[in-house]
Amino acid sequence: MVRKIVRYPEPVLRAKCRPVTEVTPEIRTLAADMLETMKDANGVGLAAPQVAEDIQLAVIDVSHNPDCITFMKVNGEKVNMVEHMPVVFTNPQLDLGKDKEIGEEGCLSFPRLRGDIRRSSEIKVTYTDLEGRTVTVETDGLLARAFQHEIDHLNGILFIDRLNAVAKVGMKRKLARLMQEWEEDDE
Known about the structure:
By secondary structure, the chain is α+β, with helices and mostly antiparallel strands. The protein has a single domain (11-186), classed as Peptide Deformylase (Alpha-Beta Complex), CATH 3.90.45. The protein has 3 helices and 9 strands. The chain has helices at residues 25-40, 141-154, 165-186; strands at 45-47, 57-60, 72-74, 77-78, 87-96, 100-106, 114-120, 122-128, 134-140. The longest helix is centred in the last third of the chain and has 22 residues, at 165-186. The mean pLDDT is 96.
């Protein structure tokens, strides 16, 4: 089922999400709905707070762009990224690489808003999947950026928080205008 994606400034987007302690049928349904919602919105990632659930659950699928990474390791073994999509993860722990790069990002909770965000170019993330297995992924490129973006959501951090000071000033006016448009769209 496609769920409604909440938009900024909805308070749940600022929530520090609760850990998933047990994978229940409701959690499985939520994950399936999030994948369907993400695909319907043409996104590459979606976190539970974006569908008004304050739990540490997110989904990512970058398989539409197999060249968006140079490597992916799962539990230390090199893998074909497309075969490991979509990723559904809970309770992530993120280790950031030292090298940074700037890339353009958007967010499904901020329709029509994009900004240049500086993030680690490589990451290592350990999470629990829906089968209760601990999984460690090492990667770069768009997949690394998507993990960082979605994990930020689980911690109440939004991509606009990561803009540099100059970009934040310029973004404020644009965001206010867009928020007015979103309100009109909802009427």
